[in-house]
Predict the 3D structure of the following.
Amino acid sequence: MPTVTHILFDCDNTLVLSEDLAFDACAQVMNRVLEAHGVPDRYTGPQLIQDFVGMNFRGMLQALAQTRSLTITPEDEEKYVKEEEDQVIATLLDKAQPCDGCSPELQRLYEEGKYGLAVVSSSALRRVEASVEKVGHDVYFPRGHIFSAATSLPTPTSKPDPAIYKHALEVLGKRPEECVAVEDSKSGTLSAVRAGIPVMGYVGSYVPEKQAEMKQALLAVGAKNVMTDWSEFREKLSEFEEDDAAGKL
């Protein structure tokens, strides 16, 4: 059986506390879309998170168009995607912080050199790169090891589509069982699971009263285990290594 050699991290609210910031900025653009189509309703950042967590903005637009019966032309979609990307990036470069306890663990992984490290995200590549650079994580993920469902694929998509994980595997030259994905959302977990990659869930970025619910949700869609805090990372990773040694991955 192959040995686990690579760890593939989601970015938003897994490595970087970006979801709240990004969704607040995103809501401003989404509300301009609604206004342009004569829809009186307006979103707040938390409402967007509730409806669209784990999706990139293109996926949100397409879901919004379907549920609201809106006609958004390809040209307008590209305009809105670029507008949202610029607004979110400006916000992240100003305010983004790493997830609590994440940076020391990444440093330890980097120094040990046992695993290859990569980021696999639904978000646009410029946004992901801005996030990891802002919090000082760019040293851990060399150029070419950050993958974006919105940017890296011939046809943009969003998790839970497994396309971005399959693309990352192809570029890295890895089989699914040689990797472990770390994900905080149901859509991200499903994306990795559908690509055949074992998943470690992470719920530390959720408010405490939401963590138990999300843990069960991630396990229900295929995560092998779930950590609440980055201090649990090694313990949870060892479970994958034990399964690897036993030929269960």
About this structure: The chain has a mean pLDDT of 93.
